[in-house]
Amino acid sequence: MGAFGAHGLKSILDPAHLSWWQTAVSYWFYHALGMLILGLYQRGADEPSRHLSRIIGLLQWGIVGFCGSLCALALGAPRSVGMITPIGGTLWLVAWGWLTVILWQTRTISGNHSMRAESDLSNHSS
């Protein structure tokens, strides 16, 4: 998509439309990379997480909404298509926020277990 925009569309689109295309491709890449990392983690986990599956789904729909609408706008779609862009962005915010909460909860739970283990260890050594 990036090479197509850089080479195929550069002579066709004005700078503003080309900028929309480049923004869409950049965000598409970053979120697809995030999905890949989460998917690989999910695949290697002993028990798949429904939360991670839903987060990945939100990231996918965010790509469709945000990047898809920007690409469509860049290629000449009506400006009303731009109303979809913030919906895709919101889906991404929900997905990354949800992941942050899960990681924070996991960290807190892990931290509590190690504190208990240290407490148990110190109680047994005295």
Structural class: mainly alpha
Number of helices: 4
Amino- and carboxy-terminal Cα gap? 65 Å
Sheet with the most strands, sense and barrel status: none
- Number of beta strands: 0
> Percent helix among the residues?
over 70%
Rg (C-alpha, Å): 21 Å
Shape: elongated
**Could you spell the SSE succession in H and E letters?**
HHHH
Strand content: under 5%
The total number of structural domains is: 1
Q: Averaging pLDDT over every residue, what do you get?
A: 85
Low-confidence stretches: 115-126
Describe the overall structure:
The chain is mostly helical and 126 residues long. The chain has one domain. 82% of the residues lie in helices and 0% in strands. It has 4 helices and no strands. Mean pLDDT is 85; it is low at 115-126.
